[in-house]
Amino acid sequence: TGHVTLDAGFVNTASCASTITYIDGDAGVLRYRGYPIDQLAEKSSFLEVAYLLIYGELPGASELADFTERIQWHTLLREEMRRFFDGFPRDAHPMAVLSSAVSALSTFYQDSLDPFDREQVEISTVRLLAKLPTIASYAYKGSIGQPFLYPDNSLGYVENFLRMTFGVPTMPYELDPVHASVLDMLFVLHADHEQNCSTSTVRLVGSAQANMFASVSAGVNALFGPLHGGANEAVLDMLQQIHAAGDDAQSFVKKVKDKQAGTRLMGFGHRVYRNYDPRAAIVKKAAQEVLSGMAKPDPLLDIALRLEEIALSDDYFIERKLYPNVDFYTGLIYKAMGFPTRMFTVLFAIGRLPGWIAQWREMMADPMTKIGRPRQIYTGATERAYVPMEQRG
Ligand code: CMC
């Protein structure tokens, strides 16, 4: 079996070869299929980027129209599935509801679960992209006891999601076009990030030839964790705590440096980016734009700006190369749009979905793929003889 090397957390071990996303953590570079993230964020739309990640090339106008139409066709959930959302407790975390519902898709579409059948993979791709926003909005509606709205397929992807989330049947929904375009851009920024924890999970589960819904549902569960996608929620909780305790960013940073009860500056640090996270700079600008348009300024923005300022000039953070990551400012934008804190990671999941699908498909199509099966260094007891119950101390 050869030599086994311990690499806790896979700091130096590549699990696959991939053509999808390139990161240079020292230079702060992120590209999808070769295109720099800042250009995509500025110029492209989320479905265009989803197409790029999944099929490898930017779509032509008719390809994008066709892709969009196929997705729109599948936005409805089956009525039986819609009723699931009544069964979860009101206070369930929407990420737990999301992963359960994605997992349940493989009960409804048993005829298209073969990971090696091109057409089945294609229809599952479209179904997942189409249904995730519907599922996400129902997770929210269920938590506040409002009626579920059916999708409106005359609307764009993000517009439809916003209407299903914030609309009510008793009055017309007034879409804020700035919110829609900023949310679309945030989804672009989240769409892939090579072998992060949730994507590696999707690949590992898929490597056992589990179907796409099962694999993606596992990815949603990984994203739920506060060190990963859950960080955007944790950042807001942290800002709120600092605000409630009298806006003292300085003493919070001290607590972090003293590692009091493992306190971390949430939204800071990244395994790969050791210079800056190129997504964070784009998000910070968007946060300032969206928040400056609000009737009442959010005091949490000032706390975030102050925390960043203190941390970036402090040796603790400089020595450890800790910079704001994508999650540091996103929560403030989501809050300004009206999302409750618990929905933040769900938004990350909607954004990350094209990446999960693209990586799963790339792996399934690769003849070099083997089942993921890490080794270990055993550190337990050496061989010892069984002790009968009456002789145990
Ligand atoms: N606040 C305070 N100290 C930190 C932080 C932080 N946010 N992040 C890392 N450190 C310290 C850590 O304590 C360690 O110090 P020491 O050498 O004294 O023990 C050193 O920096 C190295 O940290 P690490 O935990 O070995 O680094 P990692 O690459 O394993 O962890 C991370 C990366 C993102 C999990 C971590 O930086 C972290 O916990 N950040 C806060 C959570 C967060 O914002 N996560 C979102 C990541 S970006 C998007 C996503 O993946 O969802």
Automatic annotation (TrEMBL):
A GO MF label: citrate synthase activity
Record's GO cellular component terms: cytoplasm
Keywords: Transferase, Tricarboxylic acid cycle
Catalytic activity: oxaloacetate + acetyl-CoA + H2O = citrate + CoA + H(+)
Catalytic residue list: 270, 327
InterPro entries: Citrate_synth-like_lrg_a-sub, Citrate_synth-like_sm_a-sub, Citrate_synthase, Citrate_synthase_AS, Citrate_synthase_bac-typ, Citrate_synthase_sf, Citrate_synthase_typ-I
Pathway, per record: Carbohydrate metabolism; tricarboxylic acid cycle; isocitrate from oxaloacetate: step 1/2
The organism's place on the tree of life at top rank: Bacteria
Example GO BP: tricarboxylic acid cycle
Listed Gene3D superfamilies: 2.20.28.60, Citrate Synthase, domain 1, Cytochrome P450-Terp, domain 2
Record-stated family: Belongs to the citrate synthase family.
Protein name: Citrate synthase
Organism of origin: Rugosimonospora africana
